[in-house]
């Protein structure tokens, strides 16, 4: 009986092992097929772009690179770049945000480039494949800047659930094909959310500027890059958009209303439309409409600017069009919906650090504070997100305090009708509380008891931010420490130091240490 059980168990284990192997093979074969399809499309584009077939010896050398036993498509291989310079893409691309933020991640590939050029020079001449006779550029693109799928310089890097970064169009196509694993790690994706990697995008922009390299563009010679890497002719689309622009400039009031309404719809529909509208010159024209006396035109214009700002490259064009004063004017005097979208636009534009300074100096903050205090529920949320982002820049914290933000936040924390925004209020407080004017205003407004009460009954995230605010208020301030102690915060902080979130534990522990040093040293 024992032998029978062992035999049955062994058979079941064997079947289970075979099943796991087949599942792994299926995933790898899917990835391999996707890579083959990608290579074919890239070869087609290269032929189309440069004319004539590629040299067979180069092609054979590229395609004969061995795949290792793991069928890893990201191992070293030879590829042709847009300038037809041969480069060696060495090693797997392992992208981590925390690593990227410490430097540009550049990898010195000069020696690999030299050996590659030497080997290829024996089997092909520059005339055979259209290679330049000039010495190829030795400034290799850093590995961290390449998409692990296409191996090309990324234009719109996004982070997936595993923490890996990919070019948006390629990872989106991978997902659209029904795949639910990360191509690089093969881990199951907990969700299919694609989060923009602004840090990496900024580093790529800096690298391109430093090395006098053009950033990848979605639109090239009247053709736009599709998700599969091929190009679609869009000259007809651009012509239709230009016709709309003429109606905006020279048409009747009704034609202008219809045209800006259509542009609003186009800008909402897809990223391609946002690229095409900007390339066709829409942004300066729409910015001029922000000051229109026609409420409907103004509303559609600010919403179009908001939609266009979603695409990163368009933010710079919007700033160059001197849109901020007009957006602030809409924020002050526009309709309810126009004010909401103006606040959301300022948030979108303030993602770039230099824009935080410009927006703060433009007089936008008092209007945002007014919307935070008196706007609709949607308007309050839009104003809160914009103010939070702007107050990351230290110079804007004082502006917000002088504009009366503390009163607005106190109202959000104490009135039941807006209590659902307590989280937003505390988040903003945690950002501005290290500013001296903000500290004074918070204490003067009588917020200390409210913050201690949040430690007692608030949600976990609210407790985090309340502890952070109290810590900022009490550092090197014996009066505030004594007040916190009288309010009975010591016991609450001790509990949070044991059972709170990681951030709450750190803040609570630090504040407890300040309390002990103040009263027991």
Give the topology:
Elements: H1 2-50, H2 56-63, E1 77-80, E2 86-89, H3 97-100, H4 110-121, H5 126-129, E3 157-159, E4 165-167, H6 168-176, E5 195-196, H7 198-210, E6 219-220, E7 223-225, E8 231-233, H8 235-250, H9 253-269, H10 271-279, H11 282-289, H12 295-309, H13 312-320, H14 324-333, H15 336-349, H16 353-361, H17 364-374, H18 377-390, H19 394-402, H20 405-414, H21 422-432, H22 436-444, H23 448-457, H24 460-474, H25 478-486, H26 489-499, H27 502-520
Low-confidence stretches: 1-10, 42-138
Enumerate the strands of the largest sheet in spatial order, edge to edge or round the barrel.
4-3-5
First CA to last CA: what distance?
A: 74 Å
Instruction: Give the class from helix and strand content and strand pairing.
Output: mainly alpha
How many helical stretches? 27
The coarse overall form would be globular
The proportion of residues forming helix, as a percent range, comes to 55-70%
* Overall radius of gyration: 29 Å
Short description:
The protein is 64% helix and 5% strand.
Key traits:
521 residues; globular
Task: Explain what this protein looks like in three dimensions.
The protein is mainly alpha-helical and 521 residues long. The chain has 27 helices and eight strands. The chain has helices spanning 2-50, 56-63, 97-100, 110-121, 126-129, 168-176, 198-210, 235-250, 253-269, 271-279, 282-289, 295-309, 312-320, 324-333, 336-349, 353-361, 364-374, 377-390, 394-402, 405-414, 422-432, 436-444, 448-457, 460-474, 478-486, 489-499, 502-520, and strands spanning 77-80, 86-89, 157-159, 165-167, 195-196, 219-220, 223-225, 231-233. Helix 8 (235-250) runs antiparallel to helix 9 (253-269) and helix 14 runs parallel beside helix 17. The longest helix has 49 residues, at 2-50. Mean pLDDT is 75; it is low at 1-10 and 42-138.
